[in-house]
Amino acid sequence: MAAHLHVGILSAALLALNVSALTATAQTYPAKPVRIVVGFPAGSGTDMLARFIGGKFTERVGQQVVVDNRPGANGIIASELVTKAPADGYTVQFMSTSHTMNAAVYKLPFDPVKSFAPVMQLGSGPLVLVAHPAFRASNAKTLIDLARAEPNTITYAISGTGGVNHFAGALFSRITGAQLVNVPYKGGPQALTDLIGGQVQVMFGTAAITLAQVRAGRLKALGVSTLKRSPLLPDVPTIAESGVPGYAMSIWWGVLAPAATPAAVINKLNTEIAAILNQPEAAQRLAAEGAEPSPLPAAEFTRLLSTEVEKWQRVARESNIKVD
Predict the structure, then answer these.
(1) CA 151 to CA 287: how far, in whole Å?
(2) What per-residue confidence (pLDDT) applies to 26?
(3) Closest to 256 in 3D by CA, of 49, 26, 38
(4) DSSP 238
(5) What is the set of domains in the chain, with CATH numbers?
(6) Dist CA 238 CA 215 (whole Å)
(7) N or C: the chain end with fewer CB closer than 10 Å?
(8) How many Å apart are CA 33 and CA 93, to the nearest integer?
(9) Cβ(102)–Cβ(75) under 8 Å?
(10) Model confidence at 30: pLDDT above 50
């Protein structure tokens, strides 16, 4: 009886010690520099967002933030590095929509949701369905009509198999039954150049790379991929309202930490980053990427990740999207 009592007292003491340690961690965090891992090159949208928020985070908490670019494998290299980092909040990852799409086309060395402690969504924006000015369709509905009348004759540019614009086109074809032919390129700039030159007919491009071309008249916008119209293109209808009910997709950015990072640390990160996103400068910075702040707290962001992973796995199966 005495032995059981002794064990119980010891267990209670250890629990109290752990709670005390976690509380102390939350109160002192961050007590040293924080590393932001970015799976894309310097100058990319994700990188610029990480550097902006990192700089503001330093101003708020007084600790240096170091951006560590680990490009390659569509962000998978960076994600794997973060899963192996200590779960203390001093290594986090800035990532994008492609994180959830990777799970649909690659065999990952981690679980895209369970291997992380999601911190928050940062911002989001639409893809823009754009076409060469001479293309016969003027909106998503007429594009569908043309594609149904002439199946597998309309080409759309993609910046690599299994990428964001590939999934956008696959989702469009799956919902509408209008079969488009994807033409792979090594990156967005090359795809955009050929679209402007008339070598391909349409593309689902980010607002960051298409807006200037639309405004200059080198491309025309047929629709935006989000459920709501974009304030950057208020006169361009959504694809959903143009005859494709249920079509919805956005480009978004978020923050992940290693699984088992203390909840108090996640809350601290969430609070500080949300305050940064509430500054007018944050809206201006995201607008340069064709997006706007759309902070989601950890619980909601976790649900978004799970929903997106399931959605893109289903689209990949039904559209036979595979990476060799």
Answers:
(1) 36
(2) 58
(3) 38
(4) B
(5) 8-124+251-319 (3.40.190.150), 126-242 (3.40.190.10)
(6) 18
(7) C
(8) 14
(9) yes
(10) yes
